[in-house]
Each structure stands twice: as C-alpha cells, then as structure tokens.
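Here's what a typical entry looks like (YtkA-like domain-containing protein):
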Amino acid sequence: MNDAAFSAGMRSSAIRVALAAVLWLGLLVAPAGAGSARATGAGGLRAEVTGEAMQDGRAVYTLRLTDPAGVPVAGARARLEAELPGAVYATSGAGLSGLVDGTFAPAGQPGLYRAEVRYPARGIWQVRVEVEVAGQRLVASLTENVGGVWSEEARGAVLLGFLAAITSLWMGLSVRRRSAAVRVPGKGGSR
C-alpha cells in the first residue's frame, strides 16, 4: 500500500469515526417527537389524533372527529392517558409518576378538540385516547417521544455504526504499521 492510498483510507476512516461520534452525541439532544394515530369505530366514527411533545415536557394533542361521510362530529367526550413503560409509580406525592392523563376540550371548530398535558419525565410514552359520542366509543393509541429520547433500537444502531467506524480506523492503523515494518528488496531498501 502506498502512502497516498494509506492517507486516503485513514481520512475516510477518520471521517466515519467523526460522523458516528456526532450521531452518538446527538442522542443527548435529539428532537422531541410527534406522534399520530387514526382509529375507526364500529359505527364509522373516525378519529385522527396528533401530538406534539416539547423539550420542556409539555405536549399538545389535537383530535379530529368525523362521521363516515367525513362531516365533523361535535359533542364528543374524549380523554387521554399516557404511561411510561417501566416507570416507578408513586402512591403519594413523592417519587416519579409514570401516568399522565388529560381531557380534550372543543377547539373552536366542529369536530376539533385539543388537550395539553405535562409529562413528568423524558421517555417513550404510550398514549391512549378514548372517545365517546352518540353511543359510539373508539380508542386510538400512539407513541410519544418526550424530551427527545431515542429508542433503544436507534441507540443500538448508532452504537454499532460507531464501533464499526472505530474498528475500521484501528484496522487501517494495523495495516500501516505492518506495511511500514516490511520492506521489499529493490523497492526502497530492506530491513
């Protein structure tokens, strides 16, 4: 391997390591997530729920209800419950509560409802929205990323990429050391 090829390979490896490091550090400041879900009840009632979690733990949810013809449905009662899987549940005022609930209120247009909640902890929350109107009931479920937490799968993928980049860099250095130690007679001398 000549010096130019080795240098190009080392630059490529260094770039991969730098990119992996940036991605890994990005886990600390990942953007908050937005969840959404759609559900249809037995009578054709349709619900679309969207949520927007902020970095400070607040989340705003919008619920849009329509009948089978797409006409907005007013007069619904809707609430949400959110659970942080694996959280320690508080039975008194002390400790972290892994449950959050909220109630939707009309949002100024027929069929449009809004709820705002505050999450006590960062994490991947499981949200369940229950809607009742005119004797019909439906449930929509979504996942909300509060505080910009990456899932375990995403963290694992970035970690594997980082380790692969480090391994590539290390192997490039090993090859360079070995090629520097071996000289071929007639190609710059011998050792």
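Residues 24-32, 91-96 have pLDDT under 50 and may be disordered.

More examples are in the samples folder.
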